[in-house]
Design brief:
The protein is an alpha+beta fold. Among the domains are: about 1-190, Ribonuclease Inhibitor (Leucine-rich repeat, LRR (right-handed beta-alpha superhelix), Alpha-Beta Horseshoe); about 195-285, Immunoglobulin-like (Sandwich); about 295-375, Immunoglobulins (Immunoglobulin-like); about 390-465, Immunoglobulin-like; about 470-580 and about 620-645 and about 685-755, no CATH class; about 1165-1200, no CATH class. It has a seven-stranded mixed β-sheet, with no helix packed on it. Strands 17, 20, 21, 24, 25 and 28 form a six-stranded mixed β-sheet that branches. A hairpin with a 2-residue loop joins strand 39 and strand 40. Helix 12 packs across helix 17 (about 970-975). The longest helix is centred in the C-terminal third of the chain and has 37 residues, at about 865-900. It is elongated. The termini are far apart. Residues about 1-25, about 140-145, about 550-555, about 740-745 and about 1170-1203 have low confidence and may be disordered. It is found in: Secreted.
């Protein structure tokens, strides 16, 4: 509102904005002289100024009060667009130009009070659109109504405004003043209303197009008297939906954010006042960019077939589908057709059709594309067909294929891949040759043609018929069997006397003692297997002597040797048949809740899967030089034109190292858990004899490949040979399985040699409890009926050690000068192998007893067997959880965990048995993680008084736990010290390759050489075959290995040793692979471990996450498990530890209190007798008959009461 020149008009006004802006040319200013400038505030008070100074353009507050300014000229405040507050009070201002305040577009408050202003030009403040406060108190205006005669001040003080206008509205105040003072009335507001008028549109909404996901505004504004109210409807005058995306703007427009397809349609704007209502309609047209509803995928098809690439898209307008190939239009022929649905169909696919195709969905608002690849699978030019042959003959099964790239042919039998051996040969054309066919060779064979595009397969069934004729070896069966029984029994008895009548005197005897089976049943099974195979060997020799032929065994045809009925007789008389187990899974109440000790009845469909004393499983068919049992390298035979290197030479050339690189991420506990876990999964039964069966001479003295001797020969320039004069290192073969995997009671065919796993395959804590009923009862405390394990001497800390073993073996008393303390007794016979392992056995034996004691406290009515089995079940679940959630992710890394996949429940069709390659080569990668020193640390993580200990002195030394501080120093040395980093040039430390089980004046063993020799003993195929299994390339040259074995020096050593990639042993190649980032494994090794651990988990009915194994509440508690918590609970006095004992932590900052670690709440296993809960709970926790009796008693009372 503009002020009128009326005497005594109120000087304090609230001004409504006037919307006129102006700005002048910009000038550059600085802070005025003597003024104070701070940021955007300028203070020029009390400076006797007579004019307005020039100030900085960014000024927002300008204080010019208490000066002598008399006039405000035009443009005095030009360029001050940001000024908000202007203080001009208490000056001597008499005149203000009408454009004095022009340019102050941001001014909100103007203070002019206590000046000498007598008059103001009209519209003096019209240039101030944002002015909110104007102070003019104390100003005296002269009467001047020449500009506006509508304003009159009557004699009684009344203000009369004639012919009111909109500009007159505002706030008014009356003030009376004389020399004695002044008085004011309260403020009043004048509002102006024009005459009523119907609404009329200023802006009408227009039809608008918008894309999905964008925003849109339909403008609508109207005028009228009173001001019309604007509302909107959609469609047939339906109210707008309540949606935060939809809003009406202050001007009346309709604003919609993030538009979707449903927002399209008709919208109506209504403008209403009390005179009338008008409306206007517009459409929102929602356009959607094309998007695929069906996206085409890569296809692999056989040549000559028809292929469809579905491709469908939606959008508005509806997009058009178009196809191109390699950026060009499709061929103009009838074979390439785009269907009405948009799909591309290619009929009678030819090899030249292979390539990339692109589906395009095109519309006016955009285009989307999807590229796909058509792959032409290899096509069989010669496919295998079902064939019937006679036993003892050779057969060739045809299979060849063509494709681009040229496919590689592989064969498998009954799901196990076939590799080159004395039994099988795959010629360059892909044909499979099977030599000396026997009943064991019958079955389904599958030929797979594979290239980088994909694969095709074709299968056939080979049927083997046995003619009823006598064989050349039949006459020699009786004499050979008698000789085999006599010689093997004599050799075993001689070995037992040698081992058990005194302390071990050589590493060979120490190793034999260490591995000698404790279970009598295992001994008898191994004996029977040796007799069975030795009988066949003797028959072979008799036949060869009569024929005057070469006796090296490489050309021997076993299925021509003995008739099936005589093979069955050999099985009976050797003891193979007598020692077969007959499974009884009829006690379903027990087998639904608990494991057996020997692993039987875990899989109710296949009760022997994963059981102890069964053959290892195979990924690939075994490779023996004679197709039956002769290891690679046992003779001078050349393989792929090269002689296999001596395992000892491989060890000294590329594996042994004095240099150790500490692991910057993981502790030595990573290795120790791996070894402890391995001793829960597998233990190969080795020959019971140290002497050869033929004449009883010790294997170490004769150095010949004569069963069971398979010595590791020293190269001519080996330092050991020069130093000791020895020609070989002790090694005996693993015992064969009777019939080598036959499940039939009639062993009427010869099967390739298989080896026996002494343990259950499952992660079931068999290293704590044993893998047979005999072993379990030996370590249980049956007398107390408390479900506990036997305990040994109690230390000063109050916690017990493991019990001592009674009787042989006596490998821990090898040196009377050290200590007469015997071995400890545990669930696995290898518990005393080295001190770190012994400490872990001690921890877990204590954990069982701790859990059993708590379960007994919670359930005092449980009997000893119930407590034992429940505690055993919990311990096994803890080991599973630690392995798969804390240990394996560090070993496999993210890539390996993805390869293994998530747990989707128990699968009874998966055999959880341990793979021979896993036990013999792959899982022995842990040997590369072993430090040469076992660290022993006190509570301050400083060396104990006795110091650290070299690894070779830690073997079979339980006396050091008894006499040198217990298990705590060893445990701290495992989780408090960095482990050994696996480096391709630093594989096994020399404590393992040069001083294994070392004794004075004796030849120590070499673990790396033993691993290679054991692989050959077990018929493990070469590394290249496992590369093919794991979908890596088949290496033809050593340069083909550059992606996996990246060290050129290592590849050069392999070439110098083996000559060709086809000959390289599995173990050294796996160890030489470069680690996959984030893991501790190479690609092939990762494939093998992921395969094995997936089988162990998915094929275990008692897997802890399998619904029914534990209740949900119990499972929640089991997932609180950590190895750190177990160590805290069961060590002697460890109080500080890192939460993840596998990861390196800095002491003391990285260590926390044991009290802060989560623990299992065993109350979830408390037996409840409440009737309403009993039915559901009984399936998870054994409920005593006492509880059942009480429940039934009260239930009967209830029924009686109701009656």
């Amino acid at each position: 509102m503009a002020l009128r020149t009326v005497r005594n008009l109120p000087c304090f006004l609230s001004v409504l904005g006037v919307f006129l802006l102006s700005s002048g040319p910009q000038r550059v200013f600085s802070c005025p002289s003597r003024c104070l400038c701070f940021r955007t505030t300028v203070r020029c008070m009390h400076l006797n100024l007579e004019s307005v100074p020039a100030v900085l353009p960014q000024t927002t507050i300008l204080l010019l009060n208490n000066n002598h300014i008399r006039r405000i000229p035009r443009g005095a405040f030009e360029d001050l667009e940001n000024l908000k507050y202007l203080y001009l009070y208490k000056n001597e201002i008499q005149a203000i130009d009408r454009e004095a305040f022009k340019g102050l577009v941001s001014l909100e408050q103007l203070y002019l009070h206590f000046n000498n202003i007598e008059s103001l030009e009209p519209e003096s403040f019209s240039h101030l659109p944002k002015l909110e406060r104007l102070s003019l108190q104390g100003c005296m205006f002269s009467h001047d109504n020449t500009d506006d005669t509508r304003l009159n001040l009557l004699e009684d003080g009344t203000l009369m405004i004639q012919d009111t206008r909109e500009t007159d509205q505002g706030v008014y105040q009356c003030m009376a003043k004389n020399v004695a003072g002044e008085v004011k009335t309260s403020e009043v507001t004048l509002r102006y209303f024009r005459s009523p008028a119907r609404p009329s549109f200023v802006i009408q909404p227009q039809n608008t197009e918008v894309l999905v996901g964008e925003s849109v505004t339909l403008e609508c504004s109207a005028t009228g008297q009173p001001q019309p109210r604007v509302t909107w409807t959609k469609g047939d005058h339906t109210a707008l939906p309540v949606d935060p995306r939809i809003n009406i703007t202050p001007s009346g427009g309709l604003f919609i954010q993030n538009v979707n397809q449903a927002d399209g349609g008709q919208y109506t704007c209504f403008a209403s006042n009390n005179v009338d209502t008008i409306h206007a309609t517009a459409y929102i047209i929602v356009q959607a960019r094309p998007q695929f509803t069906v996206t085409p995928q890569d296809q692999s098809v056989l040549e000559g077939h028809t292929v469809d690439f579905p491709c469908e898209a939606s959008g508005y307008p509806q997009p058009v589908i178009a196809w191109t190939r390699g950026g060009s239009p499709l061929p103009n022929d009838r074979r390439h057709v785009v269907l009405s649905s948009g799909s591309l169909r290619i009929s009678r696919v030819a090899l030249h059709d292979q390539g990339q195709y692109e589906c395009q969905a095109v519309s006016p608002v955009g285009t989307v594309r999807a590229a796909v690849h058509l792959n032409i699978l290899p096509v069989f030019t010669s496919a295998p067909r079902d064939t019937t042959v006679e036993s003892g003959s050779d057969v060739q099964i045809p299979c060849s294929a063509q494709g681009e790239p040229t496919p590689i042919i592989t064969w498998s039998k009954d799901g196990v891949q076939i590799t080159e051996s004395g039994k099988f040969h795959i010629n360059p054309d892909g044909y499979l040759e099977v030599q000396d066919v026997g009943l064991a060779d019958g079955g389904r064979y599958e030929c797979v043609a594979r290239n980088s595009i994909g694969y095709s397969s074709s299968s056939m069934v080979l049927t083997v018929q046995v003619p009823q004729v006598s064989r050349e070896g039949d006459p020699f069966v009786s004499t050979s069997l008698e000789e085999a029984i006599r010689s093997i029994n004599s050799a075993i008895d001689s070995t037992r006397r040698q081992l058990f009548d005194g302390s071990p005197r050589t590493p060979a005897e120490l190793l034999a003692l260490f591995r000698y089976p404790r279970d009598p049943y295992t001994v008898e099974q191994a004996r029977a297997g040796e007799i069975f195979e030795q009988t066949l060997l003797l028959i072979q020799r008799h036949v060869n002597q009569g024929l005057m032929v070469d006796t090296n065994g490489t050309a021997y045809r076993y299925n021509d040797l003995v008739s099936p009925r005589f093979l069955d007789m050999i099985a009976n008389l050797s003891g193979c048949t007598a020692h077969r187990r007959f499974n009884n899974c009829s006690d379903i109440c027990f087998h639904q809740k608990y494991r057996t000790h020997d692993g039987t009845c875990n899989n109710l469909q296949h009760p022997m899967w994963g059981a102890s004393l069964t053959a290892f499983e195979r990924l690939l068919k075994p490779v023996y030089d004679n197709g039956f049992n002769l290891p690679r390298g046992a003779t001078e035979r050349r393989h792929n034109s090269f002689t296999l290197p001596l395992p000892r030479l491989v060890s000294t050339s590329m594996i042994g190292t004095e240099t150790i690189t500490p692991d910057d991420r993981y502790t030595h506990m990573l290795m120790q858990w791996g070894q402890f876990l391995d001793h829960d999964l597998d233990s190969t039964v080795v020959s019971l004899s140290q002497s050869r069966f033929s004449d009883g001479q010790l294997c170490t003295s004769v150095c010949t490949n004569d069963p069971p001797c398979f010595p590791i020969m020293f190269p001519p320039d080996d330092p050991r040979q020069r130093r000791n004069g020895a020609r070989c290192m002790f090694f005996v073969r693993s015992s064969p399985v009777c019939g080598s995997g036959m499940t039939s009671l009639l062993m009427n065919s010869v099967y390739p040699r298989e080896q026996m796993n002494q343990l259950t395959s499952y992660i079931d804590a068999s290293n704590v409890y044993g893998s047979s009923q005999h072993e379990a009862e030996e370590i249980r405390d049956l007398a107390s009926h408390r479900g506990m394990l036997r305990q040994g001497i109690v230390q000063r800390t109050g916690k017990p050690l493991l019990p001592f073993a009674t009787g042989p073996p006596t490998e821990c008393m090898r040196d009377e000068n050290e200590s007469p303390i015997p071995c400890f007794l545990a669930g696995d016979h290898r518990a005393n192998e080295q001190l770190g392992l012994t400490a872990m056995h001690t921890v877990w034996f204590r954990e069982h007893n701790r859990i059993a004691s708590e379960l007994l406290r919670l359930n005092s009515h449980w009997d000893g067997d119930t407590i034992y089995h429940e505690a055993r079940k919990i311990v096994g679940a803890q080991m599973q959880h630690i392995t798969y959630n804390h240990w394996l992710p560090k070993i496999l890394g993210e890539a390996g965990m993805r390869l293994m996949g998530n747990y989707n429940g128990y699968n009874p069709n998966i055999n959880a048995g341990i793979l021979n390659a896993f036990a013999t080569a792959a899982f022995r990668f842990g040997h590369t993680l072993i430090n040469p020193i076992l660290y022993r640390l006190d509570e301050n993580f400083q060396p104990i008084q006795q110091g650290h200990i070299s690894l070779h002195k830690a073997f079979f030394s339980p006396f050091r736990i008894v006499n040198e501080g217990g298990i705590d120093p060893l445990l701290r040395g495992l989780f408090g010290v960095a482990g050994k980093m696996r480096v391709s040039t630093q594989l096994l430390n020399t404590e393992l390759t040069e001083r294994l089980f070392s004794m004075a004046h004796a030849v120590a063993l070499d673990l790396a050489a033993m691993n290679i020799q054991r692989g050959r003993d077990h018929g493990i195929p070469p590394y290249n075959d496992y590369r093919v299994f794991c979908n890596l390339t088949s290496a033809q040259t050593f340069d083909d290995l550059r992606n996996e074995i990246q060290n050129p020096s290592m590849r050069e050593k392999l070439q110098r040793l083996y000559g060709t990639p086809q000959n390289v042993d599995l173990f050294p190649a796996l160890m030489a692979e470069e680690l996959v980032p984030g893991s501790r494994l190479g690609p092939t090794l990762m494939c093998l471990l992921a395969t094995q651990f997936k089988r162990l988990r998915d094929g275990d009915r008692f897997w802890y996450e399998n619904p029914g194994s534990f209740s949900p509440a119990q499972l929640t508690q089991l997932k609180q498990t950590s190895l750190a918590r177990v160590l805290c609970d069961n060590s002697d006095n460890i109080t500080r530890i890192q939460s993840d004992v596998f990861s390196v932590a800095e002491f003391p900052h990285g260590y926390g209190s044991c009290d802060d670690l989560p623990k299992i709440d065993l109350r979830m296993w408390q037996d409840c007798c409440e009737g309403m809960r009993l039915t559901s709970y009984i399936l998870q926790v054994p409920v005593s008959w006492e509880c059942l009796r009480i429940f039934m008693f009260f239930k009967d009372i209830s029924y009686a009461h109701q009656g």
